[in-house]
């Protein structure tokens, strides 16, 4: 899901490198049908789906006659419900990835989860559902993959805390005043990772780390206070786990998503990786600093939302998605992304035990509130 994106294309690169024991059963994207058609030609999946139905007519003649073609958001859900696959890579950006992820979890499929927004919105639905159906949620997000791998060094009850590392993004050393007026180009210049535009902007506000705090709480059943954000500008240590005896176990690697993607595909085994290796002879030093909650208020919000639970995650995520979209369209300055998200969150009355419908309603409400903020 999201095969034409940054994670999607890296996942296909991994599949290519892993060889013929891995087959691609389905591919889905939003609008980039020429790329999707090209991928379908190479990987010959049994089905493809395009989320924007306007492109169905263009896509169909380009794929093999034996490949089924689905369209629209329901088409992606149909694809996820098929029984001719056993592992779903959830790499759609934003809450748009929620429905197909839930469909796969419902069907008991194992899921490699890059789409952190799905957990932020609906961790309260997805995590218990996965437990019920036996679906395994394997993290693709590099920090969560590192935590997952480090946790294997002890028992769950022996985990004292988790260090969630952050590069600090392009504005790590900028003042609040400089950041307030940062341009789109500034925000898209990430120092260490090459990613899709939404997560790159989230890294600049550190909203990405806020979403990851919540993601970690859901994936590893952690309390927010046991997740400590640590700025590590080199992005070599991808995160760490501290155990009760004082031992800290970390996972390291070059900043290349192919490594955590591949681990979800081969888990619990490992296979020869295709990403560049770390060369410790060229690494002079690893730096660490505490995050600046004043300049990056998104982090404070992330902890607050993780503690609030209920519908707070859905509102927080949707408001941020809309605000990021407005920034990308140059309708608001960089500094307003988090301000608007905080304002919308502040206006929300949290429902502590929402249904999926309740979460989707909270998401829709938050998007409308952002639109109202933009007009007012
Ligand atoms: P991207 O923008 O490069 O790709 C997004 C993909 O989702 C594309 O294939 C697009 O066609 C599809 N898509 C977008 N909107 C859709 C919709 N409404 N319906 C169906 N498909 C839709 O994004 P990305 O950087 O690959 O990120 C994907 C997810 O992975 C995000 O949740 C992101 O936070 C997470 N993630 C990415 C990275 C990274 O290195 N890129 C690292 C960690 C986590
Ligand atoms: Mg990450």
Task: Summarize the SSE layout with pairings.
Layout: H1 6-18, E1 26-29, H2 33-43, E2 47-50, H3 56-59, E3 68-71, H4 72-81, E4 87-90, H5 98-106, E5 110-113, H6 116-133, E6 137-139, H7 142-151, E7 159-166, H8 176-180, H9 184-187, H10 197-205, H11 207-220, E8 227-231, E9 237-243, E10 248-252, H12 258-266, H13 297-308, H14 312-328, H15 336-347, H16 356-375
Parallel strand pairs: 1-2, 2-3, 4-5, 5-6, 7-8
Antiparallel strand pairs: 7-9, 9-10
Helix pairs in contact: 4-5, 5-6, 6-11, 6-14, 11-13, 14-15, 14-16, 15-16
Nicotinamide-adenine-dinucleotide is lined by residues 2-8, 29-30, 32, 51, 76, 91-93, 96, 114-117, 141, 193, 195-196, 198-199, 257.
How would you describe what is shown here?
This protein has helices spanning 6-18, 33-43, 56-59, 72-81, 98-106, 116-133, 142-151, 176-180, 184-187, 197-205, 207-220, 258-266, 297-308, 312-328, 336-347, 356-375, and strands at 26-29, 47-50, 68-71, 87-90, 110-113, 137-139, 159-166, 227-231, 237-243, 248-252. It has 376 residues and is an alpha/beta fold. The chain has a four-stranded mixed beta sheet with strand order 8-7-9-10, covered by helices on one side. A three-stranded parallel beta sheet has the order 1-2-3, sandwiched between helices. Helix 3 links the parallel strand 2 and strand 3 (68-71). Helix 6 (116-133) packs parallel to helix 11 (207-220), helix 6 (116-133) packs antiparallel against helix 14 (312-328) and helix 14 (312-328) runs parallel beside helix 16. Residues 2-8, 29-30, 32, 51, 76, 91-93, 96, 114-117, 141, 193, 195-196, 198-199, 257 line the site of nicotinamide-adenine-dinucleotide (NAD).
